[in-house]
Every structure is written in C-alpha cells, then in structure tokens.
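Email to the structure team, subject: MTH1187 family thiamine-binding protein model.

Hi all, the expression group asked for a predicted structure before they design truncation constructs. Nothing fancy, just the tokens so they can compare against earlier work. One-line instruction: predict MTH1187 family thiamine-binding protein, return tokens.
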Amino acid sequence: MIVAFSVTPLGVGEDVGEYVADAVRVVRESGLPHRTDAMFTSVEGEWEECMDVVRRAVAAVEARAPRVSLVLKADIRPGVTNGLTSKVETVERHLS
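Reply from the structure team: attached below.
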C-alpha cells in the first residue's frame, strides 16, 4: 500500500517547516520507501507499517503543537510493491 499524508501543526504561526521536519524525520527513520514533496509525504509498505509511521509522525508534531491537522490518502493494492516508483515511471513513459 501507499499512504500519502500531510501533517500540519495549528496554532504555531505561519512558519511550520520545523514542525513538518519532525514528521518527515520519523518517515525517513522508518526505513520504508518514501517520497516527500511540497504538499505530501508518501510512504509504502504494509498496512500496519504505514499506519504506525503516520501515527508516530503525527505524535512528533503533536509533541510541540497545540493542535494537528492530518490529511491522508491510501492506495490499498495487495501484492504490488515499488508503487512509488512504478506509478511515476508509467506516467513518464506516456509523456515521452
């Protein structure tokens, strides 16, 4: 499965980069395949693994912010691996 999620601290002002970095650090330390862009961080693995990473990323932000917003989207497709790369490669192939 691939989980794309965004964790946003609320009540800390407009500059939230350091809080978001706490969440991304959790993802990077998880060892799961991942990708971060301007809007979301995507992580790939089994249900329990992905949800644990999301839970810990939220907790990392929650430890320093009075309120946290979480947006999550999941692609649940058993038996598929390397989806983070293969999905992008398919689109790129169609663009060339």
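The longest helix spans residues 47-62. The radius of gyration is 14 Å. Ping us if the truncation boundaries need rechecking.
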